[in-house]
Write a structure and sequence with these properties.
With about 250 residues, the chain is of the alpha/beta class. It has helices at about 5-20, 25-35, 45-50, 70-80, 90-100, 140-150, 175-180, 195-210, 210-215, 220-230, 235-245, and strands at about 60-65, 85-90, 105-110, 125-130, 150-160, 190, 245-250. The termini are far apart. It binds S-adenosylmethionine.
Length: about 250
Amino acid sequence: MENNELLFYNEYEQFYKMTEESKAFKNFCREAFGEDFSQDGFSDLNQVKRILDYVPPREDLHILDIGCGNGKMLGFLQQKTDAFIHGFDYSKNAINAAKNMFKNKAEFRADSIGEIDYPDESFDLIVSMDTMYFAPNQEDFVKQIMRWLKKGGVFFAAYQEGDVMPKTQNEKTTVLAEALDKCDIGYEVKDITRETFDLLKKKRGAALSHQKEFEEEGNNEWFELLMLQTECAKNDYDSFAKEMARYIYTVKKS
Ligand SMILES: C[S@@+](CC[C@H](N)C(=O)[O-])C[C@H]1O[C@@H](n2cnc3c(N)ncnc32)[C@H](O)[C@@H]1O
């Protein structure tokens, strides 16, 4: 790994260690997102419930989560659909936690985008919440995802611009959308920037309401990070929307 990639990797290892140990973070997640999925992003219960609308009506479902963290979101999807769940993430701490928590109809791998592979037509649904940014080559990765999907299967990706990925000039085009276009893959897109702004405000309020708990645990640095991540929610919506945008992309494989 390059130096800055290693920094990111180590940060995620620490993040998932903290999510195991911190009661304050679990309480924060419940208040901010409606459910504790150890989120490092924006996957609140409303967004995750949206995924359920795209589950193909089939027996013997297989769902893959790209960047699954400790697998709690997959656990929720399994409860609702009885699917066999598959997840991968490069954080070993996250994957160890997932393996401990989910033992039934579940498979988790500590591996990286660009290195991992699955047999063609393995999954009915592939989800990726805030992780497509880390693909070393976006076009190669979307082609690979389409290979992994069964016919009639769905790819569902939540994707943010403005923090990890710089906002593009062309309003309709993100790096992900550009890659899908170049690969001639048809998709639907829903702009959820407004609800993301509201969610960021809620995240900030929830972090503040658990500040003391974070401090008592010695987890001040995570509280400070949450403050930094939600700083932009102090602006009015129009200023926010000039800098950030969030979309849900869905692709159905014919
Ligand atoms: C922004 S977090 C999103 C996590 C989770 N999906 C969520 O919504 O809370 C990005 C996730 O991708 C993982 N990740 C980052 N780069 C990766 C890579 N190159 N290969 C696999 N996983 C990666 C991180 O460990 C982290 O769990």
